[in-house]
Write a structure and sequence with these properties.
The complex is a heterodimer of chains A (about 180) and B (about 220). Chain A has about 180 residues and is mainly alpha-helical. Chain A has eight helices and four strands, in the order H-H-E-E-H-H-H-H-H-H-E-E. Chain A has a two-stranded antiparallel sheet with strand order 1-2. In chain A, strands 3-4 form a two-stranded antiparallel sheet. The longest helix of chain A is centred in the N-terminal third of the chain and has 40 residues. With about 220 residues, chain B is mainly α. Helix content of chain B is about 80%, strand content about 0%. The longest helix of chain B is centred in the C-terminal third of the chain and has 55 residues. Classes of the chains: A mainly alpha (about 180), B mainly alpha (about 220).
């Protein structure tokens, strides 16, 4: 402290050192606030994910026997068994955004379309999968729908991640173009 | 990565987004037909309604999402200070990635590298994954897309990283203008100094001539 006062009195280097310290502290503070913001974002996204993890689906809201509330895939499995729908029910009609976007990409493609590939896909039949079911399974290959990521500059050129193995049950499917 | 031009081509409506706008109805009809054929029996009424509502919700999301991307691109560009490439890159690599990769994708079931003991388990896992994704989509649709925490977070990060850029650009412009004006002033001053030097020289010469003439007159 004494040195610092001396430094100030005689216009020494301590003033400069102090201002450097202040600016480095400011930078550190900025970094910390940025980190805090990133953490807040992460917490918010985790919260929203948690909310969707605890979803419940209501089926047959207007049916005579009353609504059925499902809270997990196990509940859904039980519902399918109880409703005598059979385990060979085709799941190809359950289209979420990924499936719709994959089907849109399929329509955009003028050369190698997904449906054409699937038609030549012998393993699909061997696994007792319909083309629609294979389409649903294929939609799981990309985290971001390929329609946003693999467009090659011009319209209608959508490339599919071909030759990627897909494991279904004990079998591994490999797309053949 | 697709460019904005390849995504939206206003002149001839041939961009990818225009194709989505045009084809979504057809895709929706295709899936609707699949649902009607596959779940036609009377015992399937509930599951058919379930699949139909999922289809409607997904299509609704795409219908809102595509113009939202356009609006966000235009808004961020209008704010100024950001290049079109910056804004587009941020939209594709941050916003769209956050919505799909970070938010929706973890909700889906992944059949890759996961074996199913029987077809019933596979069936229920697949449908449940789609239902969860649909629930996520519902959350996104409930409020405006920008107000959802996952999108808001990306926006906040963008604003922190890019705030003051417009002001900085304006300050740079002003500084450039001032520098130019200073250079003009310097040239003007040097011209004036030259003119003053010439005038000074002329005045001195005139004074000399006048002195000489006065001396001549006084001597004569």
């Amino acid at each position: 402290m004494e040195n610092r006062v001396d430094g100030v009195e005689f216009g020494g280097d301590s003033v400069e050192a102090d201002s450097l310290e202040v600016s480095s502290l400011k930078l550190r503070l900025e970094d910390l606030s940025k980190q805090g913001l990133a953490d807040r974002v992460r917490i918010d996204s985790l919260k929203s994910r948690l909310a969707s993890d605890t979803i419940s689906v209501v089926i047959g809201e207007h049916s005579e026997k009353g609504p059925t509330i499902l809270r997990s895939s196990e509940d859904l499995r039980s519902y399918i068994t109880m409703s005598r729908l059979g385990t060979d029910l085709n799941f190809g009609g359950f289209a979420d955004v990924y499936v719709l976007l994959l089907r849109l990409a399929d329509r955009c493609s003028d050369t190698i379309s997904m449906s054409n590939m699937l038609k030549n896909w012998k393993d699909v039949r061997a696994l007792n999968l319909s083309l629609d079911e294979a389409m649903v399974i294929h939609s799981h290959l990309a985290l971001v729908p390929t329609i946003f990521g693999s467009v090659q500059g011009e319209v209608g050129r959508v490339s599919f991640p071909a030759c990627q193995p897909i494991r279904v049950g004990d079998a591994v499917l490999i797309l053949q173009v | 990565m697709p460019t904005y031009k390849s995504r939206r081509c206003r002149s001839d409506s041939s961009g990818l987004a225009d194709v989505i706008d045009k084809d979504l109805r057809n895709v929706e009809r295709d899936v609707s037909d699949i649902i009607k054929i596959q779940y036609a029996g009377s015992e399937c009424v509930e599951i058919r309604e379930f699949a139909m509502s999922m289809l409607r919700r997904s299509a609704e999301f795409i219908r809102k999402f595509v113009p939202w991307v356009d609006d966000t691109y235009a808004q961020e560009l209008n704010k100024g200070g950001n290049t079109p490439e910056d804004v587009w890159c941020w939209l594709i690599t941050r916003v769209i990635r956050a919505i799909f990769e970070e938010y929706l994708a973890p909700m889906r079931s992944t059949p890759i590298n996961s074996g199913f003991r029987d077809s019933g388990r596979e069936l229920s896992t697949m449908i449940w994954g789609a239902a969860k994704t649909n629930a996520g989509v519902e959350q996104l649709l409930k409020q405006s897309l920008k107000d959802h925490p996952i999108v808001q977070g990306v926006f906040t990060q963008w604003l922190v990283g890019h705030s003051g850029r417009k002001e900085a650009d304006m300050a740079l412009e002003v500084a450039a203008k001032a520098t130019k004006e200073l250079a003009t002033l310097r040239t003007l001053i040097s011209d004036l100094l030259k003119a003053v030097a010439v005038a000074d020289k002329t005045a001195k010469e005139a004074k000399k001539t006048a002195d000489r003439l006065r001396n001549n007159r006084s001597s004569s």
